[in-house]
Amino acid sequence: MRKPKTWRAAVATVLAAVTGCAATNPEGVIAMKIDDRTAHVSLASGTVADGDTVALIESRCPSGPRLDRTRKPRSDKCKKVVVGRGVVTRVLNDRYAVAEFPPGVMFDEGDAIQKQ
Predict the structure, then answer these.
(1) How confident is the prediction along the chain (116 residues), in pLDDT tens digits per residue?
(2) What is the pLDDT of residues 55-68, one digit of tens each?
(3) CA-to-CA distance for 98 and 27, rounded, in angstroms?
(4) Is residue 20 part of a domain?
(5) From CA 24, how far away is CA 33, in angstroms rounded?
(6) How far is residue 97's CA from residue 112's CA, in Å, rounded to a whole number?
(7) Is the residue at 107 inside a domain?
(8) Of 15, 26, 37, 98, which shows the fewest CB atoms inside 10 Å?
(9) Which residue segment(s) compose the domain that 87 sits in?
(10) Could you tell me if residue 9 is inside a domain?
């Protein structure tokens, strides 16, 4: 017999944990890629200003089994790595801004960013 409530509780716990971390460490995403160096970024309301630095974040996980011996996910082994930095050149509104990255920094829509 399946226990859908257990699954829902697990999802709710993960969402609560992610939401709790967002207040202390503002994270966002590349909302729209304008060109190879410029993008619209989305962050929590009112967290960035012109001239702020944003870091492009990549999650790197070790290869190997996805479950440990207790059959729990190994996501705790994953690390967030800064793969590039950009500068906010213009705040569009309280949730969106334009950021410019140096040549050679590869990014795409949906990539994670974090205010530095």
Answers:
(1) 554 555 444 444 444 444 444 334 558 999 999 999 999 999 988 889 999 999 999 988 777 655 556 655 555 677 889 999 999 999 999 999 999 999 999 999 999 999 99
(2) 999 988 777 655 55
(3) 15
(4) no
(5) 26
(6) 14
(7) yes
(8) 15
(9) 26-115
(10) no
Distance CA 23, CA 5 (A): 28
Is residue 73 domain-resident?
Answer: yes
Enter the tokens of residue 105. Answer: 């920094």
Nearest residue to 41 via CA among 94, 78, 2, 81 = 94
Q: What is the CA radius of gyration of the chain?
A: 17
Domain count, the chain: 1
Tokens representing residue 52 in the block: 């702020």
Looking at this protein, which amino acid is placed at residue 22? A
Beta bridge partner(s), residue 56: 84, 113
pTM of the entire predicted model: 0.67
